[in-house]
Design brief:
binds phenylalanine, 3-stranded antiparallel sheet, protein biosynthesis, about 350 residues, tRNA binding, 11 helices, single chain, 7-stranded mixed sheet, ATP binding, elongated, phenylalanine-tRNA ligase activity, BirA Bifunctional Protein, domain 2, alpha+beta, magnesium ion binding
């Protein structure tokens, strides 16, 4: 046994002396201490020895193992010191490599900003399903099945189970599906909800992408009136776009608000006078209005006691009015040259 151990150590010494880098050292480690190492094979032989011989043999192997470990560690630290000595000098005055720091996507930045502005007015951020029942997306909003007003929402229908009351499922074409859901969730006003979600419509051009984001506001309480709605927009506009932009309400029609408006903001180039970009001096932000009594009833809220307003605007559109993006599809092309500008 002693002789065998001696031989193993001698061979290991040779191997270690020839090692020139740390990778080859890893290999040697496996050869010396792994399952198929000579040392391991020798250990297995102990069982063939007589009872009297075994302790002595065990001691010899242990001793050899310790010796091998020491040799190995010595070689390793020698190699490390050698490699370090090759790096002769470090120029501490040389300019460092700057790490590129990323930032949130423009849409995420806008979402954070919008939530912060509305939270100052007491609106709470809520989320609802982005695949929702027809009833929440249309019917509860006073758009019965087959009503032509639905055409404007160029909806993606999906294969889904049919529910006798709720109908089939759609990819939400607007965030207004959250209106009745919020009324059902809170059961009783006051309601101050802001809902930001992905929406889907079958359209694509410079100002539309099939997936986009909307933010929807809903406020329901006693004695809510149109000046409250206008005041909310003025607060948002001043905070999001700056103090020089004005908003106006233009009569419009939505089935789920009465009266309904389209909200416009003064063009930032001509400040409302009219220019080649905007023509009239105003740019359209999105829809709004006083919540229709039928929608309140669908949410089990008594329209004789409560009134409310709602609005829903596209985030991409709102961003493009602040940062003059010529084509909103750029937002989703993941082109770093575009994204890093913001
Ligand atoms: N949901 C409407 C749209 O997508 C916007 C809207 C929301 C209008 C709330 C009125 C009230 O165009």
């Amino acid at each position: 046994m002693d002789k065998d151990a001696e031989k193993i150590i001698k061979e290991a010494q040779e191997k270690l002396e020839n090692a020139t880098d740390l990778e080859s050292l890893d290999q040697i480690y496996i050869e010396l201490f792994g399952k198929n190492s000579d040392l391991n094979k020798l250990t297995k032989k102990i069982s063939n020895l007589s009872k009297e011989q075994r302790p002595k043999a065990g001691q010899a192997i242990n001793k050899a193992k310790k010796r091998l470990e020491k040799l190995f560690e010595e070689t390793k630290s020698k190699l490390i010191t050698y490699h370090l000595s090759l790096i002769t000098s470090v120029d501490v005055s040389a300019p460092g490599k700057k790490t590129e720091i990323g930032h949130l996507h423009l849409v995420s930045q806008a979402i954070e900003e919008i939530v912060e502005i509305f939270s100052k007015l007491g609106f709470f951020l809520q989320s609802y399903p982005e695949i929702d029942w027809d009833w929440y997306a249309f019917e509860s909003l006073n758009m019965p099945k087959g009503h032509p007003a639905r055409d404007e929402w160029e909806t993606f229908f999906i294969k889904s189970p049919f529910h006798p009351k709720l109908g089939s499922q759609v990819l939400t074409p607007h965030t207004s599906n959250g209106q009745v859901r919020e009324m059902q969730r809170l059961k009783k006003p006051p309601i101050r909800m802001i809902n930001i979600a992905r929406c889907y419509r079958r359209q694509i051009d410079v100002s539309h992408t099939p997936m986009f984001h909307q933010f929807e506001g809903l406020l329901i309480d006693k004695k809510v009136s149109i000046p409250d709605l206008k005041g909310t927009f003025d607060f948002f506009t001043a905070n999001f776009f700056g103090p020089n932009r004005q908003t106006r309400l233009r009569p419009h029609h939505f089935r789920f608000t009465e009266p309904s408006f389209e909200v416009d903001i003064t063009c930032d180039i001509c400040e409302g006078i009219g220019c080649r970009m905007c023509k009239s001096g105003w740019l359209e932000l999105g829809g709004a209005g006083m919540v229709h009594p039928k929608v309140l009833s669908a949410g089990n809220i008594d329209p004789n006691v409560y009134t409310g307003f709602a609005f829903g605007w596209g985030i991409e559109r709102t961003i493009s009015m602040k940062t003059k993006i010529p084509d909103i599809r750029l937002l989703y092309q993941s082109d770093i040259r575009f994204l890093e500008q913001f």
